[in-house]
Design goal:
Elements: H1 22-41, H2 47-63, H3 73-85, H4 100-104
Helix pairs in contact: 1-2
Length: 105
């Protein structure tokens, strides 16, 4: 019986704690740092002010949450942005197509 051991996710070995890229940790750390600075500066007199002060950390935590079939939410957002902003019409350049360069000559 031939059986092969193929790792399920070989990219995890390249990640910090098996979950985070360095960019993810920088983003998370900066969001938490901004929140801590805001906690020291702004008085939390109302629930709205509390939400505003906690927003940077909460947004960064949501962006680095791991989800199935993608690395995290940030990767999905960048993939969607790249798909929307890139060319949507793909030009066939196969062996049977005449290229524009040959037509112009």
């Amino acid at each position: 019986m031939n059986s092969y051991l193929i790792p399920a996710n070989t990219k995890q070995g390249e990640l910090i704690f098996g979950l985070f890229r360095p960019l993810d940790l920088i983003l998370l750390g900066s969001g938490i740092a901004v929140t801590l600075i805001l906690l020291l500066i702004i008085p939390l007199s109302s629930p709205l002010m509390t939400l505003i002060v906690l927003a940077p950390a909460l947004i960064c935590i949501v962006l680095v949450l791991p989800i199935p079939h993608y690395h995290n939410v940030l990767v999905i957002i960048t993939d969607i942005f790249a798909f929307i902003t890139n060319r949507q019409k793909y030009i066939w350049k196969g062996w049977c197509a005449i290229s524009d360069e040959k037509k112009q000559k």
